[in-house]
Amino acid sequence: MTMISAAVLLFLVMDPLGNVPMFISALKNVAAERQNTVIVRELLIALLLLVIFLFAGQYLLSWFHITDPALTVSGGVILFLIAIRMVFPSHEKPLQEGIDGEPFIVPLAVPYVVGPSAIATVMLMMTRNPERWPEWLMAVFLAWLASSLILFFATKLKRFLSQRVLIAIERLMGMLLITLAVQMLMTGIHQFMHTT
User: Fold this and answer.
1) 3-state secondary structure of 106
2) Does the pLDDT of residue 15 top 90, yes or no?
3) What is the maximum alpha-carbon separation in the chain?
4) Is residue 175 within 8 Å of residue 12, measured between CB atoms?
5) For the residues 179-185, what does the mean pLDDT come to?
6) 2 — alpha (psi -120 to 50), left (phi > 0) or beta?
7) d(Cα 190, Cα 91) in Å, to the nearest integer?
8) CA atoms of 187 and 164, how far apart (whole Å)
9) Is the dihedral of CA 81, 178, 114, 192 positive or negative?
10) I want to staple 7 with a disulfide (CB 3.0 to 4.6 A). Which of 38, 96, 142, 160 is the partner?
11) Distance CA 41, CA 165 (A)
């Protein structure tokens, strides 16, 4: 995996376009003059969390004795479940979380920007090739920057793009993520079969 392909994968996993409606919904009770400040704060917290999991993730995995195949399969399962909900959203259990007042860390930074699939992805990148950490760090930054630009201009983007266009983009990203999730599952099973 190259740095660019890792950044694209992480960008797809973070799904900023799919998160636009959820960001807007979470910010509806925040005063207009505070919204940009809150968004920037939450995006910086999200970047910090991604970097922490990038560098500390491998130690957490070794502490819990989690193998690389197990992480690959679990990451694929989580990614698959999220992708299925992107393609076939449930009205009974929406991805949005109801909050009162100004959000802090939850739900904007976690799980909207840094969800379980993003955490699993950065941990996988580092555990497979820890010596390439500068590339992975740059990939994390590029994916975060692209996602941040979209989410920062979320309110303007919603006015520019119709709800149908946003939904269509989210469905398309969901289908791409399903393919990536299946590949992760197959890779994890293949690794497990060859280590036992």
Assistant:
1) strand
2) no
3) 58
4) no
5) 84
6) beta
7) 36
8) 35
9) positive
10) 142
11) 28
Cβ partners under 8 Å of residue 80, min gap 6: 177, 178, 181, 182, 185
Which residue type occupies 105? I
Written as one letter, the residue type at 140 is V
Q: Which two tokens stand for residue 133?
A: 């950490």
pLDDT at 32: 83
The model carries a pTM of 0.78
What is the C-alpha to C-alpha distance for residues 2 and 135, in angstroms, rounded to an integer? Answer: 8
Residue with tokens 């010596």: 131
How many whole angstroms separate alpha carbon 158 and alpha carbon 163? 7
Give per-residue pLDDT as tens, 40-98.
999 999 999 999 999 998 888 889 888 888 888 887 887 788 778 778 877 655 555 55
Helix axes 133-152, 116-128, angle to 10 degrees: 160
Question: Which of 163, 46, 18 has its CA nearest to residue 103?
Answer: 46
